[in-house]
């Protein structure tokens, strides 16, 4: 048992992992778990102080842990482009890319690029970053996209992708998460020849994500009945590291199991249309 545990602790030794949105929530736990398994982890976030704090915590918990932080604003395509260059300069080869960063906004806003913020942060940013890093991701590597069960709550409204005609928080978030799933399936197809696996997941309903502004008794009940951040990160870590899913690609996971995503997410023509639109929107930075 001790030997088995030691092997599990070091199964990612020599591997390079990139985790976006790694300073809080399930991203934070994903960084910690991958570092615990021996990976060199480069994680990103907006808050440099939070990044340095997490590095200190992990290195205090895990002797010899190799973790580093890069600052980025996913609401800026220029910032994403700069991040890709910084990652590529540090890591000639990437074994694992976890696109975890995301946003659920209560008010409509636009980025410096003039794009609706939720669509920009949740879809265009990981779309751009992933494409810019493809030459650095090794053949046989893994890409993990954090989506949500809410992807099935809305259809892809190609006539109003950014909610310019009618915006709502639920529609913006759900549509961006549907975009994550459709992007996953198209990317898996495009990278099949390189044997790079691309999968997405629903992390579960995380207590800290939806109850932070609620009364204390609600937060207490949420802590009892909903997943904590470590549990929420479990499927991300599983897809990034487990030998059980080696070679499995183009799937949607929930609680470490491949399940069926929404009917629309499998529409290949819509996947390709979304890809073409996304590519056009970020072409100045590719």
Quick gist of this model?
This protein is α/β, with parallel strands linked by helices and 286 residues long. 45% of the residues lie in helices and 15% in strands.
Report on this structure.
- The protein has helices at 2-9, 25-36, 48-61, 77-90, 117-133, 169-190, 207-210, 216-225, 229-241, 268-282; strands at residues 16-19, 40-45, 67-71, 94-99, 137-146, 197-202, 252-254, 257-259.
- It is of the alpha/beta class.
- The protein has one domain: NAD(P)-binding Rossmann-like Domain (Rossmann fold, 3-Layer(aba) Sandwich), CATH 3.40.50.720.
- It has an eight-stranded mixed beta sheet, with helices on both faces.
- Helix 5 links the parallel strand 4 and strand 5 (137-146).
- The longest helix has 22 residues, at 169-190.
- The radius of gyration is 18 Å and the shape is globular.
- The chain starts with a helix and ends with a helix.
- The relative contact order is 0.13.
CATH superfamily: NAD(P)-binding Rossmann-like Domain
Average per-residue pLDDT, rounded, comes to 91
Strand pairing plus helix content: what structural class?
Answer: alpha/beta
Order of strands in the sheet with the most strands? 3-2-1-4-5-6-7-8
CATH topology: Rossmann fold
Main sheet overview: 8 strands, mixed
CATH class designation: Alpha Beta
Strand-and-helix sequence, N→C?
HEHEHEHEHEHEHHHEEH
How far the N terminus sits from the C terminus, by CA atoms, comes to 48 Å
Instruction: Give the CA-based shape.
Output: globular
Taken as a percent bin, the fraction of beta residues is: 15-25%
Which percent bin holds the helix content? 40-55%
Tally of domains: 1
